Amino acid sequence: QVQLVESGGGLVQAGGSLRLSCAASGIIFSINAMGWYRQVPGNQRDLVATITSGGSTNYADSVKGRFTISRDNAKNMVYLQMNSLKPEDTAVYYCYCNAKKVIVTRASDYWGQGTQVTVSS
Question: What are phi and psi of 109, to 5 degrees?
């Protein structure tokens, strides 16, 4: 099974930085994309950033210029460097992976358990 484990969340002051990491493990044939979503209570889970196996990135407008997503394909890891953090960035951040477990299957979405990011004023 594909497992995603996030790390790097915590409490930071506005204007500060955090770096989130996510490691994918388990039976994985290929990973098409990895990324980060975030969710606050009462809201839907929203895209933050994604990156494909080829390196193509996609960012939410609210984080462009502040966050940078990267990945290490050899390690099946994805990172999110978050700079100039704002209180509105406070949320649970979830690692996302679109992957095939075996070659004959369709790619499926997988999610980590989430890591809390809190930005104080």
Answer: -90, 140
- Overall residue count recorded for the chain in this entry: 121
Mark 2-40 as b/e (b = at least 16 C-beta within 10 Å): bebebebbeebeeeeebebbbbbeeebeebebbbbbbee
Question: How far apart are the C-alpha atoms of 7 and 68, rounded to whole Å?
Answer: 16
The predicted pLDDT at position 104 comes to 84
Question: Would you call 88 helix, strand, or coil by DSSP?
Answer: helix
Per-residue pLDDT, 73: 85
Say what the alpha-carbon torsion angle 118, 16, 57, 54 is, to the nearest 10 degrees. -100
pLDDT value of residue 92 = 98
- Cβ proximity of 6 and 78 under 8 Å: no
List, in order, residues 6 or more apart from 15 with CB less than 8 Å away. 84, 85
